[in-house]
Design brief:
- The chain is mostly helical and 161 residues long.
- The protein has one domain.
- It is 80% helix and 0% strand.
- α1 runs antiparallel to α7.
C-alpha cells in the first residue's frame, strides 16, 4: 500500500468511527465519495489494473458481510463500509480488515457482557444450549455500532496482514 491508501483508510476510519459511535449509522454521504476517491486514485496510480484491484477489494468486502447482513447481524452501513475499505487495499486487505474487525467486535462484546453482568450466563448459554443442541434460544438486547470495530480492524490491518 502507498501513502494515499494509508491516508484514505485512516480518514475514512476516523469519520466512520465518529458517525457510527455518535449516530449509530454510517452515511452514504461519507462512503460514496470515499469509494470514488479510492477508485480514481487507483486509476491515477496504475491505470485499469489498479482500478480492477480496487473493484476486487470492493467485491471482497461486500462478499464477506453479505450473509451477516442478510441474517441481521450487521447493518447496511457496516456492509458498505467494509466494501469501501476493501476498495482502498484490495481483496487481501479486505479479508484482514474483516478478521481484525471481528476480533475487535469479540473484545467489545466481552466487555459489554461483563459490564452488564451477563458474561457468565452468556458463556453458559453458549456451551449448554448452543454447542450441545445447536439451537439459539435466547438473545440479549445489548447492541453496539459494529462499524467502530471495522474501523479499528481496517487500521490494524494496515500493519498486521
Amino acid at each position: 500500500m502507498v501513502l494515499w491508501q494509508y491516508a484514505g483508510v485512516f480518514t475514512l476510519a476516523a469519520v466512520v468511527f465518529y458517525y457510527d459511535l455518535k449516530y449509530r449509522r454510517i452515511p452514504n454521504a461519507v462512503l460514496v465519495p470515499a469509494l470514488v476517491a479510492s477508485l480514481l486514485l487507483h486509476a491515477w496510480q496504475g491505470g485499469l489494473e489498479e482500478v480492477i484491484l480496487g473493484l476486487k477489494g470492493l467485491a471482497a468486502g461486500f462478499g464477506l458481510l453479505i450473509l451477516p447482513y442478510l441474517w441481521g447481524w450487521v447493518g447496511g452501513g457496516d456492509l458498505k463500509f467494509l466494501a469501501v475499505l476493501g476498495s482502498f487495499g484490495g481483496p487481501h486487505y479486505a479479508l484482514y480488515a474483516f478478521l481484525w474487525g471481528a476480533i475487535a467486535g469479540g473484545a467489545v462484546s466481552l466487555v459489554l457482557l461483563a459490564r452488564h453482568r451477563l458474561l457468565k450466563s452468556t458463556l453458559s448459554f453458549m456451551w449448554w444450549d448452543y454447542l450441545l443442541t445447536r439451537r439459539v434460544t435466547s438473545r440479549t438486547d445489548i447492541t453496539f455500532p459494529y462499524g467502530i470495530c471495522f474501523a479499528l480492524g481496517g487500521v490494524i490491518a494496515l500493519w498486521w496482514r
